[in-house]
Design goal:
The structure holds two protein chains of two kinds. Chain A is an all-alpha fold. Chain A contains 13 helices and no strands. Chain A is flat and about 50 Å long. The chains are: A mainly alpha, B alpha/beta.
Chain lengths: 256, 244
């Protein structure tokens, strides 16, 4: 009975989610998508016979904002399915649906079924979520990764299941490669796991790796922010911009 | 719209308060679960609320978009806690969903912008002669050659922003007018300045086009947005440009 109840709730959520997003699947590419997809296509410039000039700087800029996993994933996706609007929006549509389901499951386990259902229905109806789940950008992948990780951590906390623990550790690798904000969460998660390391049987190696990643990220962010080692303003703009607009000089604020 | 995000933030606070002090039997979250949830939210959530209550805007929200499921779970829990024994939960659930839809209405504004942008490019591609498009988003996106072709931006089209300086406008018009009579396409928007003078190129004809798009037409009407494009056909320069 409880399974049927869950299945019906997930079916309602999926229907609402898809009804609000499918009309947007073939809409024209947006502001960020055009730029990001151009970068995805140039993710592996060394493997291309004639790499576009100037994309190295844009790629360096991109890597300072987002880790490479989503770009690499999209690079492979485009090689197989092309870069039509429908193709570019499909991975985010799937990730967004997963995020709605995960929110419901998390709500069920943290609070109760009704709270989980209302929160996930609100997520499905949230127009910001609608926009990001039909755009070839990073946001929905981040949200889905985070929701899955919190769900697994909570389950591990309650059940101390070995498979859940392995899944959580694998998801941590995925999260670190998906978005930099995951590091803040990873720091909190590592502290919690350290506190309960005997119950969950988490080895010292894991803590060494996790703390190294967090410290490494901290140094990267510190140099990036304060020491000026990576200064986005110094990156030259892609030369294509000048040819696109037939020699019309771009205002300064649009060249960064 | 800003105030509606504050409502969500306040409901989240109610959810956090419940996690800290609510009765354990009022829901399924036990003590360790509460501790876990609050520890994970920690910094980002405090930062979000701090920034949010001061000045919630989509830009801030976007940076913490990945936390949205947690915010909504807490808001739903907070709402349920606050309305217990009062407003029926079904009604309060409908309210929170309606609030969510309204809260990010600025995304719908982006839909409108995107459709206007597409309409500008479509009309520019239909013109047989040179076209000057005045729109900032197209300039900002810097599409590559590949996507320029996909979007249909032809070689006889130049794009400038509404705030481009006079030198940019003049150089674009000089270059385009060598290819024929220039058509200027621009969007009308209350919050954007626009070029009203084209120097030595007098305006021969001005037309206004109302652009409505599909499922969001009711939203346009609801908020009375002016989805208007202006098309101006310019004559050649009233006097030849000075030669060096």
């Amino acid at each position: 009975m409880q399974r049927w109840h869950l299945a019906i709730q997930l079916a309602i959520l999926s229907a609402v989610y898809l009804a609000l997003r499918i009309p947007l699947m073939t809409s024209a590419l947006w502001h960020d998508e055009i730029y990001n997809t151009s970068l995805y296509l140039n993710t592996l410039p060394l493997l291309q016979a004639n790499p576009d000039p100037g994309w190295g700087a844009d790629w360096a800029k991109q890597i300072s904002i987002h880790p490479p996993l989503v770009s690499l994933g999209y690079f492979a996706w485009i090689q197989v399915f092309g870069d039509s609007e429908l193709s570019l929006h499909t991975p985010t549509l799937v990730a967004g649906l997963l995020s709605v389901w995960l929110t419901h499951l998390l709500g069920r386990e943290l609070f109760d079924s009704t709270t989980g259902f209302v929160a996930s229905l609100a997520l499905a109806c949230c127009s910001a979520h609608m926009v990001f789940s039909t755009q070839a950008v990073h946001a929905v992948f981040e949200l889905t990764c985070y929701a899955a990780s919190v769900l697994l951590l909570y389950r591990l906390w309650r059940t101390q299941d070995v498979r859940t623990k392995r899944g959580l550790l694998a998801l941590n690798v995925l999260g670190v490669l998906t978005f930099y904000h995951y590091m803040y969460y990873l720091a909190a998660q590592t502290a919690l796991l350290w506190w309960r390391r005997r119950e969950h049987e988490v080895g010292a190696v894991y803590f060494v790796v996790a703390i190294s990643a967090i410290v490494g990220f901290g140094l990267f962010a510190m140099f990036y922010t304060y020491a000026g080692v990576i200064n986005l303003d110094e990156f030259p703009v892609n030369d294509l911009s000048t040819t696109i607009y037939n020699g019309v000089r771009l205002p300064q604020q649009f060249t960064r | 719209m800003i105030h509606i995000w504050r409502v969500i933030a306040l409901l989240c606070i109610a959810g956090v308060v419940w996690c800290l002090f609510g009765r354990t039997d009022d829901g399924r979250l036990d003590r360790t679960g509460r501790l876990l949830l609050l520890a994970l939210l920690g910094g980002p959530f405090a930062l979000y609320l701090g920034l949010g209550l001061l000045d919630i805007r989509f830009g801030w929200f976007r940076n913490f978009f990945y936390l949205l499921p947690i915010y909504l779970l807490l808001a739903a829990r907070g709402l349920r806690w606050l309305t217990r024994g009062g407003v029926p939960f079904g009604i309060s659930a409908a309210v929170i969903i309606a609030v969510m839809l309204l809260a990010s209405m600025n995304s719908v504004v982006s839909w409108r912008e995107n459709n206007l942008e597409r309409e500008l490019i479509r009309r520019a591609a239909q013109e047989p002669g040179p076209v000057l498009v005045v729109q900032s988003r197209i300039v900002a996106r810097r599409p590559s050659e590949h996507y320029r072709k996909r979007l249909g931006i032809s070689d006889r089209t130049a794009v400038i922003t509404p705030t481009s300086d006079h030198a940019d406008l003049t150089s674009a018009l000089e270059r385009l007018s060598a290819q024929g009579q220039v058509v200027v396409l621009e969007q009308v928007s209350a919050d954007r300045s626009s070029h009203t003078s084209y120097g030595p190129y007098p305006v021969a004809e001005t037309r206004r086009h109302t652009v409505e798009f599909g499922p969001f037409r009711f939203v346009q009407r609801l908020f009375d947005w002016p989805p208007i494009l202006i098309e101006r056909r310019l004559l050649g320069p009233s006097k030849p440009p000075a030669t060096p």
